[in-house]
Each structure stands twice: as structure tokens, then as C-alpha cells.
Write a structure and sequence with these properties.
This protein has about 100 residues and is an all-alpha fold. It folds into two domains: about 45 residues; about 50 residues. About 85% of the residues lie in helices and about 0% in strands. The chain has four helices and no strands.
Length: about 100
């Protein structure tokens, strides 16, 4: 075994060891709480529902990510405009109290 593959194996063990311990803690807690369905769910991950996958694909096809980015930019632009209006109102209020 080469030194590089030894290091990779060691790193893999270091990374997976805490994961196994956390899994063990979760399993013990679920058993203690008497939640067998939750244990089954941990053992048999089912993935995302097909309806959610279909909707995600629809959003992608309709250029959803770009629309979200545009909405975020609009919100930021409006927030700057609102701040400018508030600052102008504050100035006018202060100017009015000076008289």
C-alpha cells in the first residue's frame, strides 16, 4: 500500500468514525424513546418525493434560479430607496423642529 493510499485510508477512518458514533447515539436515543419507525427511517432512507423532484425540475426549466436572483436584486434596490426616503423624512422632521 502506497503512503498516499495509507493517508487516504486514515483520513477516511477519521472522518467516518465520528459519523458512526453520532449514528450510534441517535439509534440509542430513538430506542430509548421507543420510536421504531424513526429507526426504520434511519436505516432505509427513501429520498425526496417524486412530486418534489418534478416541481424542482419545473422551476429549473422556467429559469427559476434567475428569477430568484432578480427578485433579490429588486428587494435590495427597494430597500435602498426606502432608506433614502426615511433619511429624507428624518431630515425634514429635524428641520421642522429647528424652527
Amino acid at each position: 500500500m502506497s503512503p498516499k493510499s495509507c493517508r487516504i485510508t486514515q483520513m477516511s477512518k477519521l472522518i467516518s468514525s465520528p459519523n458512526h458514533s453520532l449514528s450510534d447515539v441517535c439509534v440509542r436515543a430513538l430506542r430509548k424513546l421507543n420510536l421504531p419507525s424513526a429507526l426504520e427511517a434511519l436505516e432505509r432512507p427513501i429520498g425526496l418525493p417524486p412530486s418534489l423532484l418534478r416541481k424542482a425540475e419545473e422551476v429549473r426549466l422556467e429559469d427559476g434560479p434567475a428569477k430568484i436572483e432578480a427578485s433579490i436584486e429588486d428587494v435590495q434596490r427597494l430597500a435602498h430607496q426606502d432608506l433614502a426616503i426615511l433619511e429624507e423624512v428624518e431630515f425634514l422632521v429635524l428641520l421642522g423642529t429647528a424652527y
